[in-house]
Specification:
Length: 194
């Protein structure tokens, strides 16, 4: 029996932790990583709903000189992960930029992922306001945060994205939905925004 195969592309600005997130998902050490030049390719198998799901992961460089490459590698992606830095006060402007870049690619699932949740200078961002104009897109959207230093939090994000993709593929229809999930620890301190 053949495994389902999906393509995932990780995009975002330089230094937000895209490569760290991918390495954490794969169980590789995340310290002393070099900046990505161009693009890196990885593959892994995840167990989702008792099924093996084979995923190709394209890790794109965040430096501006490589942004033109992202379009050709992100094409035909089932999942696009937009990573932003939770410590950056202007992160939502950059998330908007990346969402505009992927509009024409038409992925099935978009993950808006805040990284560096373990740092003390984390800023509260109104992700909902940024995502609201994109509710007309035929995307399933997952909005959450994680720390690339905690493999379990990264795995949870990818498991949720793959589950949404597999469920919608099996049901043969896509419904616009936005899913937000946060840890119980942060739930009490948050007001209207994730």
């Amino acid at each position: 029996m053949s495994r389902k195969r999906y393509k995932c592309c990780v995009v975002g600005d330089h230094g937000v932790g895209k490569t760290s997130i991918v390495y954490s998902l794969l169980g590789k050490p995340t310290n002393n990583l070099q900046s990505t030049i161009g693009i890196d390719f990885f593959s892994t198998t995840l167990l989702v709903n008792t099924k093996d799901v084979y995923m190709n992961i394209w890790d794109t460089a965040g430096a501006e000189r490589f942004h033109s490459l992202m379009d050709s590698y992100a094409r035909d992606s089932d999942i696009i992960v937009v990573v932003y830095d939770l410590t950056n006060k202007n992160a939502m402007q950059r998330v908007t930029y990346w969402l505009r870049q992927i509009e024409h690619i038409k992925p099935s699932v978009v993950v808006v992922l805040g990284n560096k949740n373990d740092l003390s200078q984390v800023t509260q961002h109104c992700v909902h306001d940024v995502l609201d104009p994109y509710t007309r897109q035929n995307w399933c959207v997952v909005s959450t945060r994680c720390s690339s230093r905690k493999r379990s939090s990264v795995q949870k994000v990818f498991q949720k994205a793959i589950t949404m993709l597999v469920d919608d593929t099996e049901n043969n229809h896509m419904v616009n939905k936005i899913v937000r999930f946060t840890s119980k620890r942060n739930h009490q301190t948050q007001k209207c925004c994730t």
